[in-house]
Amino acid sequence: MTTKTTHPSTSGSTQARLTSGWLTFAGTIALVVGTFNIIAGLVALLDDEYYLVGQNQILVFDYTTWGWFWLALGIFQVAVGAGIVAGRMWARVVGVIGAVLAAIGHLAFLQAFPIWSVLTIALCVLLIYALTAPPAGSRAA
């Protein structure tokens, strides 16, 4: 006959960690949006004729500037997405700020690539909701 013995934890206290599917979802969305922005940045840098805007339409910057902006923001969002998945609180706060910047940037970029921009804006709004909806103190699963 065998008996099962349980030993108390060595730390002396057991604290339950809340996990949130929303935070895991938010981290994944941040990684996806960041990847989309990296792709958009590389396309703007490598192929100036890919995005086409007519003469009477206004685009705030030239495509090289947009390329560097999207590339930097995309790399930033991928790093923040990894932080969100790791359960870091700073990543949640910075993720909301990054999503707002990306949404505003895609509003300005709307004339150059409307479908991509609308989809990315929708993902940014979903990301903001996913980052602000979880209970305080929860971590990604």
Low-confidence stretches: none
On the 0 to 100 scale, the average pLDDT is 80
Major beta sheet, specifics? 2 strands, parallel
Query: Which overall shape is indicated by the principal axes computed on the Cα atoms?
Result: elongated
The tally of beta strands, per DSSP, is 2
- Computed over alpha carbons, the radius of gyration is 20 Å
Describe the structure.
There is one protein chain. With 141 residues, the protein is mainly alpha-helical. It has one domain. Helix content is 62%, strand content 3%. The protein contains four helices and two strands, in the order βααααβ. A two-stranded parallel ribbon has the order 1-2. Helix 3 runs antiparallel to helix 4 (114-132). It is elongated and about 50 Å long. The mean pLDDT is 80. It comes from Actinomadura livida. Pfam families: DUF7144 (PF23636). Keywords: Membrane, Transmembrane, Transmembrane helix. This is DUF7144 domain-containing protein. Residues 22-134 form the DUF7144 domain.
